[in-house]
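Help wanted!
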Amino acid sequence: MDIGTYLALASVLFGLGAVGFLVRRNMLIQLMSIELMLNSVNVMMLAFNRAYPGNHAGQVFAFFVIAVAAAEAAVGLAILIAYYRIKRTLDTDDATLLRY
Amino acid sequence: MHDHAPQQLMLLLIILLPLAGAVVNGLVGRTLPKSLVTLVGVGSVAVSFALAVASFVQLFGLSHDAEHAALGYHFYEWFSLTLPGGKIAPINIGFMMDSLSGMMTLIVTGIGGLIHLYSIGYMGDDDGYPRFMSYLNLFMASMLILVLASSVPVMFVGWEGVGLCSYLLIGFWYENREYASAGRKAFVANRIGDFGVLIGMFILVGVASSFEFTDINQAAMSGSFRADFPLRIFGVAPSLATVACVFLFLGCTGKSAQIPLYVWLPDAMAGPTPVSALIHAATMVTAGVYLCCRLSPLFITSDVAMSIIAVTGTLTALLAATIAVAQREMKKILAYSTVSQLGFMFAAVGVGFFAAGFFHVFTHAFFKACLFLGAGSVMHAVHAHGDADIFKLGGLGKHLPTTRWTFLASCLAIAGFPLTSGFFSKDEILLGAAAQIYRPDDALMTSVGWFTLIGLTLAAVMTAFYMFRLYFLTFTGSYRSADQSGDHPYDAHPHESPPSMTIPLVVLGVGALIVGFLGLPHVMPITGTHLPSWWGHWLHGSVAGQPVPEELNIVNLASGLAFAAMAIGIGAAWVLYRNKDTDALAERLPARLYQLVFDKWRVDELYDAVVIRPIKKVATVAGAADMTFVDALMTRLPSLNVKEAGRYFTKLQSGVVQMYGAVMVVGVVAVLGWFWTPHSRIDAAFEGNRVELTTPPGLGYEYRWDANSDGDFETPWGKTPSTNFEYASEDVRGVAVFVSNVSSGVERRVRVTEAWMPLPIELVVPADRRSPQELGFEVRMDGQDLAVRKPQPGADPSTAREVRLPIGKPGRLGVVRLETRPLVEATVEVRNAFGNVRKDTLGIALPFPVARAPQAMLIQPAREQAR
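Answered by r_m:
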């Protein structure tokens, strides 16, 4: 398949993730949107690695992203649970304490 | 002498031991037992004195071998200065002991050691005893650096160091505001003088190209300082020596308490009595005299500076003596006496008798230290704090026999009683003044000699008088505080001081009587016998001076005056004050005059009105300006602006995470948008007749150039953001006209086309104040030339006379200068990674003519240029 197809898929996934992060107010959904954006980047890197198979930097980097995403998900979910225990909600509109 | 390491180390240790003592007592003295503090403080100075004696003995041995014998120690090079002219003058941490500095070192460490010993008894009960010892030791180290330094900057380190210690010790009891401010006064007065020393030092190094005393003195002896100073003062150009010496002497007036800066010394008596004895009588205040002696070959080159010094010294001696006559407090009297005696020393220096001045430093150190310590002993005995009013004392001779007899010995010495030390030194000074009178063909020095001789004789009369007034009122008659009903009386039962205080008194008192025999006069008065003068011989190698007169009449005149002065002074005091309780002089003098003298001629008040208050007023204004302009306008206003702006911008920090994300997205899009199309901006640089064209590089950019903008790209797409091109005549697109006013030289660039257009001449002749119509030129391109015409108002423009200027040649139109340059256009296309292309064009006025077709140069007769 043409690399353009992969890139189009990655762009669409990234756009979905970005819009989801911006418009949804539920933190859990936002966390999922971030995962979506990270995975779209993974798709892009794998596609480039396939198109330019001279080295494996793209594939290796995708593993890094997966590892970081896993850690981020763990931390993120922990924060989320802690937050829920205090506020009894996951709405980000209520999470505005960190301001001047 | 340079290969004996132990000797050099000894020289260094003389300085380092007191310094180490100061460090130890200053840092940990508070935690040490008192006996250990004493051991460190007094012991370091005692060992230092022993080493000084050992060095001096060595020096004495050398003096038989060489004329200019000296022990030297070059420690290391501190830093160096490159002088104008490329010479490098190193500043060495080096020390030198010659006959002058050796003698001074003995005085400093010897008398300093005795005063340290005295301090054990005097200051032992004070809470600040370790601090006091530390300061005293630091003073010793600084004074020894000053004395032993082999170059001016190192001496200046000591000079500043003793000033600092003086300040610290005057304000030793800093809880008392008056004492603390006395310390400040001393410091400020000394700073004024230090400025003079610095200026003097710069002149010295500028002329001698070296900081070393020996080099400077060498230069002075070879006449380098006789050249005129580059600036004229009051229409005359003084010699370099005069200017340097006057500035150095300004420093001496500060340090050695001469007119006009003497006012700090009497106030300095606020410090503990040993300080007054050591710093403000025996050693530090004589540093000015020492400096003059050190640089005596320089000072003696300038008659003007010498006269200034002699007159200033004499005036100071007189002024201070008159004030001392009317004071009531022991230390005040002794302080003014010190100022007066310093005046004697400077008068000796001023008449060219450096050795005599330094001899007086030597003898004065003994008797004045003894007097101060005696005063301290009296104050200790009667429990007087700060100072003792002599009209509450009296009859103390019975109670304090040791103090009384040593005090009497010193009083005799300072008064100049025959065969005491002061007799010999004062005699020598008067002899110097008298010798000037007989200097042939020198009106200046003769009149200075007369002035000095008369002034010093009067001062000597008063010296003998006020010293014996002090002695009689303190030690004879009845003890006035025995009657405890009076106004704040002292302790009713005075007692003699402990041995640690009386031993120094005895040593110094005996010294005051006998040390004069070191400096016997060359010629004995009356008989005319020649005597061996060890002092003059000893200092001969290191101190310059006028020749000592041998004529008997001069010697008799000086000695007679000195003896008469002593006899009159002591006699008057005997009559007026012996066994008396009241101030007989106050009853005999007009009350207002007496009050004026008692108020020290109100010099402090004069300075306050003339100097201090105007400065305070300026400072008040400057302070107000600082508050309103700098603090408010420059600091508070901007901070207020920032604060107000911040009040609004903080609202952006809403804490809503989606808001932050959205802003970031907007930012990312904006950045992407900027990168979407490439950017270019052509720059032209000229090399010979080629033009180097460049455009800023960018990531992933490719460039192709069409340097002459003819539509054909000379280069294919490439990665280099520059090209090089040589323009030919067919590339010229027009002409750029640089218009400049002949007078102002302002340049404006105008782009001319094929059609007639007005020349915007008003831009360049604003100074002419003519309206633009008056110079209404029109220009257009005609082939390769510039056509210029000036249409008359109302007439058909086409009838006006045309002038043609060839491109590349300057021409004139009235006041306007025209320069034409070939104008070419360069084009670049830049393509970025997205495939977007941007085209940029720049018109370039070439500063050189291009290769042109010959027919274009046909019409350019010079006479057709306007006017």
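OP: Thanks! One thing I noticed: Chain B touches chain A through ten residues (CB under 8 Å).
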